[in-house]
Write a structure and sequence with these properties.
By secondary structure, the protein is α/β, with parallel strands linked by helices. The protein is 24% helix and 27% strand. The relative contact order is 0.16. The protein binds NADP nicotinamide-adenine-dinucleotide phosphate and zinc ion (ZN) (2 copies).
């Protein structure tokens, strides 16, 4: 029997988030069903419910930073049992056969991974609904194991903000001896600071918000640059091995490329709604590169969660009631987030 599920959804790209009910599928033999306890609020949720990237599928139940406790498992499930703490991030399935899936890079599935919401299952027709809801059903291979050691609400954002910043830093082997700048202190940015510091890099926060300086330092950043101050920006030209660009709104990439050392790389994880304007000279000088990175594969997401449990790393959160989600979106748009909203699903 399908399971009646309570949620918050946007009915159209112009609608606010409102209560909505739907059915989760009856768990298949390989599925895990769990009660969602907390769900983080990612800027990608906002981009998608407002159709800022591409036409979305409505009604849309966003949410891809999902944690909870297992209530039932299909009879072939091996990894999880009732009572386990688990999580689901941005993907619920992929083809599993292409070379990227075989390499544990399901986020780059050549046949298209199934996103947790605003997407379809691998049958390419059944819509997926995300974590602003009380129940989740997911194939065990896309369910992550969560440590009992950490504050569960603060773990939720690791499932997207965490892995999205951890993955590129591991790929480019960020560590001791590297000067790393993090651009934008929001959900992704604050996790980028924590990981870069933890990996031993010298970290500079590049922010438009003077009020975030003390927090940047508390998070471990060694330096703070107010990007609206031309002198402060000029002082860090040719300075960084890497810039982790987490900005959600249009901004001038050429300016930030100029802050890179020779062979420096600007790693873009933020996805502003409009295309980038890039001058060739911004790349020619100092042989700079611009790169991108999407979330992380399932094995690396588990590795990141285990790393966080070992090193006591979680997100700094503001726990909200689900009926305040529309206000949270407006605050996120103004950069007024410290540093991730997490929905307490007990309020649904
Ligand atoms: P967020 O919490 O809203 O943080 C974005 C930060 O960017 C803001 O706090 C602000 O920091 C800065 N910012 C905002 N507008 C700006 C502007 N006009 N100019 C300069 N800086 C500005 O967002 P998030 O959840 O971290 O997500 C960030 C971006 O990453 C979004 O586009 C999201 O869709 C994307 N994303 C990508 C992936 C991936 O797989 N690559 C995964 C998750 C999210 P300051 O106040 O410090 O300036
Ligand atoms: Zn996200
Ligand atoms: Zn694949």
């Amino acid at each position: 029997m399908a399971t009646a599920t309570k949620a918050y959804a946007a009915q159209t790209n112009k609608s606010p988030m409102e209560p909505w009910n739907f059915d989760r599928r009856e768990p298949n033999p390989h599925d895990v069903q769990f009660d969602i306890l907390f769900c983080g609020v990612c800027h990608s949720d906002l981009h998608q419910v407002r159709d800022e990237w591409f036409p979305g599928m409505f009604p849309m139940v966003p949410g891809h930073e999902i944690v909870g406790r297992v209530t039932s498992v299909g009879n072939h499930v091996k990894k999880y049992k009732v009572g386990d703490l688990v999580g689901v991030g941005c993907m619920v399935d992929s083809c599993r056969t292409c070379e990227n899936c075989q390499d544990g890079l399901e986020q780059y599935c050549i046949n298209g991974s199934s996103q947790t919401y605003n997407s379809v299952e691998q049958d390419k027709k059944t819509p997926t609904y995300g974590g602003y809801s009380n129940i989740m059903v997911c194939h065990e291979d896309f369910v992550l194991s969560i440590s009992e050691k950490l504050d569960l609400a603060a773990v939720a954002p690791l499932l997207c903000a965490g892995i999205t910043t951890y993955s590129p830093m591991r790929h480019w082997k960020v560590g001791k001896g590297h000067k790393v700048a993090v651009l934008g202190l929001g959900g992704l940015g604050h996790m980028a600071v924590k990981f870069a510091v933890s990996f031993g890099a010298e970290v500079t926060m590049l922010s438009t918000s003077p009020s975030k300086q003390a927090d940047a330092e508390r998070l471990g950043a060694h330096h703070f640059v107010l990007t609206s101050d031309k002198e402060q920006l000029a002082a860090v030209r040719n300075s960084f091995h890497f810039i982790i660009d987490t900005v959600s709104a249009p901004h001038d990439y050429n300016t930030y490329l100029g802050l890179l050392k020779t062979n420096g790389i600007q790693i873009c994880v933020g996805v502003p709604p409009s295309p980038i304007e890039l001058y060739g000279f911004s790349l020619l000088g100092n042989r700079r590169s611009i790169a991108g990175s999407a979330i992380g594969g399932i094995p690396e997401t588990q590795e990141m969660l285990d790393y966080c449990a070992e090193h006591n790393i979680v997100s700094d959160i503001e726990l909200i009631d689900i009926k305040d989600i529309n206000t949270a979106y407006e605050r996120m748009l103004k950069g007024d987030v410290r540093y991730r909203f997490v929905i307490d699903m007990a309020t649904l």
